[in-house]
Amino acid sequence: MPAPLNSEAAVQERVADLEQRFGDPWDPDNPLGHAGLLRADELGVLSPEAEQLLDDFHLNAEFVPAALGGRLVRADTLARVLRPVFRRDQALGVGYGVFSALAGASVWAGGNRAQRRWAADLLLGGGRLAVSYRELAHGNAFLRDEFSLRAHGGALTLSGSKRVIINADRAQGLVIVCRSSDEPGSRAHSTLLLNRDELPADRVRDLEPYPMVGMRGCRKTGLEFTDCPVPEDSLLGEEGGGVDLALRSFAFTRSILPSMVLAGGDTALRTALRFADTHGVDGRKMDRNPQARRTLVGAFADLLISDSLALVSTRAAGRGHGITGVYAAAAKYLLPTLLNDAVHELSVLLGSSIYVRDGAFGIFQKHVRDLPVTSLGHAGAAAALSTISPQLPALARRSWLVDSAPADTDSSLFRLRDELPSLDFRRLGAFAAHDPLCAELTVAADGPAAAANPVLGPLVNRLVEELRRLRNSCATLAPLSRGSLANPHTYALADRYTLVLCAAACLGVWRHQQGGPDTFLASSDWLVVALLRICKRLGIGLPADAPGPEGEVFTELLRRYYLGSSFDLYDSPLATS
């Protein structure tokens, strides 16, 4: 009898199945390996063999809730299943159908029974959904155009254009956020679910593909509507509820996409390590080049930091915490920065080989190009910070470092393989009451951190002091409405808050692995390296005797490299020859 969909056994089975279907990425004769994917990228298309593989795997079922016949039960497990795809090709992950998952979130969260059934049947039948969000705060320059919905003689018509909509020309289902009122405020937008096959062809036009350096195989076209009539029953939720629905769906989508994308950082690190292992760096073998080792360890630590925050943000969605939207926005904002910085640091190890677009190491250059575009996704940094900033005053006054904070911790956020209840899209939180992640920082300061490592205790104390400074700065802010314009001061506070969240996530993962089977995550070695890197970004003064245990972390990195396992928290087996 098969294991339940939300069980760890079922998830591991699907991840391993998909990984093995792709085969050895370094085999030049494997059409699904790096060489084959690079050939498709040069042609500006997705690999037909890879798309057929995902068809055979029925990947679209991962985007449909189990109650509607799919395999989607949790946000964290969805991200894990998609990592083998993003580890191979970011454009394949996005272009094949991840945006169907992003579009579907609005349907599952706001659609009626008929709308959910139609969207589920479309995806399960191999079709696609495309989504056009209204970019909150217009954080992405090429996403500033939008659609407008108007009532004429009792009928609804849609007009306007949007230059970039992933898979707009391949999707039958369209989720469109549009301006439905000229009045100011958050009630001026609505969301539609449209069946393109039912729209008049002369009122809808596909725009030319948008040229980009990265993700060249991904279809980045746009749509233009000209007084296009749309059915009255196409509204998702209520009229004027578009922003509220977007924020609720963002609590899911903003966490899963960065969690998938970090698998591309895994491939970049593996490629750089493979180059250093076979060619050396600056004429020296890898084990005789301290700077090369530090760079590799730093990238490994950044992947663990990123995955710790991704873990908490995706698992918070399943717990229905009100702060889920804040954690998801933090992941959407910070993880692209960590991953891009890590990849650019790694590029130094390859020297002039960074410019090679084929051969054994050409995949590195592809990930350098793809990561920034993938990370941009459907909402940029400004939009993410605009979600976080209005929450800071209330969090500072109600949650951070208050006497009852330790009681607000939630161990289920940090346990990698513990089961969670099935995700309820209608319970996705967008407004914060308590901050269990920052509470974890308080618990660590009062717990075994100092005894675990002589450097760890002082680091945690400095991070607690940083949280106290944040509390003092944010508590004095006037309450911010969601519609108020953020400013550089609140953005700077939100930026520092996301780094504190990363530190707390790492501490939580470490603390809740104690006594478990993963001895590496239960050790303080990786944690010290991770916190040192976070403190450096925060500009926090480090202990005088703060040389991190890079040697032990480097040993673990080499173990995973030679055994063929992932560089994320899960240490999952990878396909090899």
Topology:
Layout: H1 8-22, H2 34-43, H3 48-57, H4 75-88, H5 90-110, H6 113-124, E1 129-132, E2 147-152, E3 155-166, E4 173-179, E5 189-195, E6 204-207, E7 220-230, H7 242-279, H8 290-319, H9 324-350, H10 362-376, H11 381-388, H12 392-398, H13 436-446, H14 449-452, H15 456-475, H16 488-511, H17 519-522, H18 525-538, H19 550-563
Parallel strand pairs: 1-4, 2-4
Antiparallel strand pairs: 2-3, 3-7, 4-5, 6-7
Helix pairs in contact: 1-4, 4-5, 4-7, 5-6, 5-7, 7-8, 7-9, 7-10, 8-9, 8-16, 8-18, 8-19, 9-10, 9-11, 9-16, 12-15, 13-15, 13-16, 15-16, 15-18, 16-18
Structure description:
- The protein has helices spanning 8-22, 34-43, 48-57, 75-88, 90-110, 113-124, 242-279, 290-319, 324-350, 362-376, 381-388, 392-398, 436-446, 449-452, 456-475, 488-511, 519-522, 525-538, 550-563, and strands at residues 129-132, 147-152, 155-166, 173-179, 189-195, 204-207, 220-230.
- The chain is α/β, with parallel strands linked by helices and 577 residues long.
- Among the domains are: 8-126, Butyryl-Coa Dehydrogenase, subunit A, domain 1; 132-231, Butyryl-CoA Dehydrogenase, subunit A, domain 2 (Beta Barrel), CATH 2.40.110.
- Strands 1, 2, 3, 4, 5, 6 and 7 form a 7-stranded mixed beta sheet that branches.
- A hairpin with a 2-residue loop joins β2 and β3 (155-166).
- 54% of the residues are buried.
Calculate Rg over CA atoms: 23 Å
Helix content: 40-55%
Overall form = globular
CATH level-4 homologous superfamily of one domain: Acyl-CoA dehydrogenase/oxidase, N-terminal domain
Which structural class do the helices and strands define?
Answer: alpha/beta
Individual helix count: 19
